[in-house]
Structures are given as structure tokens and as C-alpha cells.
Sequence to fold (295 residues):
Amino acid sequence: MKKIIWGMFGVFAALAFVGCRTIDTRASGYQTATEAGVAVTAPEAAVATQQPALVKGVGARPDAVDLRPAQTQTATASAVLEQMRVLVRQSARGQDAEQAATLLGGGVQGALAAAGYRVVYDGRAEIIADLGVNCAPLNARGTRVVYKGDADVTVTRAPEFNAMSGQKMKDMVARNRFDVTGAPGRGKGDAIKSVADKMSAAVSPWLADACLKVGGKLEVCVVTIANAWFLSPHSDYPTRFVQRVRAMPGVYDCTILATDNVNKTMQARVVYDSDRFPDGIMNRLYTVPELNIHR
Fold:
């Protein structure tokens, strides 16, 4: 037993003679203490600091899913007033009358454009103007030719407004007849032009005034809906938009001009009575929840 104790004492003595190392667990690294008391510190870069690792597996929280679209789900709408369309329909019998009607049409178009109307010769319109033109020679003796002519003009509102809107509109009709005699001309062409110029001078101002009276307080605007996230190839929103707008008192017509399912835009043309919308048609549309549009 004494031998064992003396043996262990010898081991301890040897360790004390050689020196021992102690570990300092400070965060800056580790230090090695020597018997002489001189500390040797390892640099921080040389010490690998173990960081906690996030491992997805059983019980791990999944990433949050963003269910919102790329753009905010708020459709906006704006409107631009458009010129009212006047459909001009001409009728003429004979070559001379057709030539006079063509010249008359040019003068009428200029007068209506100056009054703020857009003349069309086919397609849909809010006002229809029918011009029946006659032209015949009055005196064709010698080199001086004189023609006479007449124009029967009727202005009405487009009848399809009633069928499309389901609202009864009072038929507005303006009618007048104009008889003119041209100045003597050097040949047939000059004489017909003289008749057409006189017709235009009489018909154009009356027609512009008649369109104003027949059209009444009608206004036309093009509504553009942007960021319409609800539009898709199978969406019934355009149909519901037309139905809802046409059902408004004072709206005569609403048609879709274009839809873009990729860019999420839609355009509609609305014809309405401005007296029924003193604050504007758009302020009324904003109040309809089914349309889902905002300023």
C-alpha cells in the first residue's frame, strides 16, 4: 500500500515539474497558462464558434404564404367625355342629285364638327340625320346653266336606345325642307356646285341646332377601369357591368369597347342624361358596390 501511495506521489511531482495547461472558456477564445505565468491567447479567427443550425423537419414552421396578387386588389376608374355621334344618311335620285348630295355632306360635316359632334356614315350613333336631296336643271340654254334643288332633312334620336336600356324615351323629331336655286354657272359642274353651296348654307346651321335640341342633355363618356384584378377570360364582370349601368335611371346606353385580361383593363362607353347626374356619371358609379371600382 505504501508503494502505491509513493508511486502516485511521484506522478504528481512529475506533472508539477513539466507544467500543466488549463482551459479558459472566455468568449474571446481560449488561453494557455504556463508554469511561468505567461498567457498565450489564440486569435479569435482561429477559434471556430459553433452557431445553432436551423433544420427544417418535423415541427418546423413553414414560410408564410402571401395570398395577395402582385398588385393591390383595388380597381380604379376614370372617364373622358366623348363627342356625340351623328349618323348622316344621304339619299339622292339621279347623277346630278348625287353630286349635289356629296357636296352638301362635306359642308354639313364641317358645321356639325364645329358644334361638337362627330359625323359617322355607318355604325351606331346617338342622333340620326336623314338628308334627301333633289337637283335638276332649271335653265340649260346657252353657256349659262342654272340648277334648282331641295333638301328634306329629318333629325331623330337613335331608336335602339329604348330597346337597349329598357327605358322609354320620348321620340324627338326635327324636320325641315329647304328649296334653293343656284346661280348661273359656266357649265353643269359650276351650276350644281352653286346649288350645293346654297343648300349647305341653309341646312348646316339648322341641322346643328336641331341636333342640340333632339339630343337634349345627352352626354357620352368613355369609362376606363384599370387594375381590374377580377378580369379573366371566363369572367362575367363585363356583362354584369353593362347590365348594372344600363339599369341606372338616366342611362340610355352602355357598351364594352375593349377588355384586356392580361393588363387587367376594361373600357366602356356610356350614354346618359346629364341632368340626371348633376355630380357626374363617375361619382354615381363609385357608389355601386357590385362594380367594385374606386377613385
About this structure: The longest strand covers residues 144-157. Helices lie at 2-18, 95-114, 160-165, 188-215, 237-246, 281-285. Residues 84-215 form a domain with the Rossmann fold fold (CATH 3.40.50). Confidence is low (pLDDT under 50) at residues 13-36, 52-71, 162-167.
